[in-house]
Amino acid sequence: MNRRLxxxxxxxxxxxxxxxxxxxxxxLDASIAIVIANRAEAPGLQRARDAGxxxxxxxxxxxxxxxxxxxxxxxxxxxxxxxLVCLAGFMRLVGAPxxxxxxxxxxxxxxxxxxxxxxxxxxxxxxxWGVRVSGATVHLVTTELxxxxxxxxxxxxxxxxxxxxxxxxxxxxxxxxxxxxAIGVVLDGGxxxxxxxxxxxxxxxxxxxx
Length: 210
Ligand code: GRF
Known about the structure:
The chain is α/β, with parallel strands linked by helices. The chain has helices at residues 14-24, 44-50, 66-79, 96-101, 122-129, 164-188, 201-209, and strands at residues 4-9, 31-37, 55-57, 84-87, 106-110, 133-140, 150-157, 191-194, 197-200. 5-O-phosphono-beta-D-ribofuranosylamine is lined by residues 9, 11-15, 44, 88-89, 109-111, 175.
């Protein structure tokens, strides 16, 4: 698989940083071709610049509609020969032009154990529900919000005295650990999507052998 990544961000870019670090430290065999933000002031852009990575900011205001915006993003990613798109705190729904340009080639990280607590404020949702365990999920992006096939998950405890901030910080540690790992899994291939499931060849062998 083409191991050139395109990372899409909206904010601070700590997950972007975890990918930059993993590539730099050779824990992840990939390169970051471009980082695109939908806000010129996204602090994560500076992280990319500091790492010598090309950046672009595309504001939705400059496009007629959602479709035109997504097409522009897809065109830019294609122009940079990106093989896998990584959403890293990209606060926009991804529409058909992007999904069609990168079928089964867009990943997202979400701060809950999906399918629990999709959408915004996942950590607050978990606290309000009173769950004892939450975590992080990396999944393929489909038309369903936070509903695509799950590549990797990691659980963290929810503690009695947690605030949104303390829970978010505990989950973030796991996000930074599993996102580069999940990118490697996807890039290495040997998997397919079966129904809702992301099935690795190793899983199939294990299942067959059990
Ligand atoms: C992370 O919690 C991620 O799971 C969610 O948005 C947040 C982005 O944080 N999708 P950062 O910009 O990567 O620091």
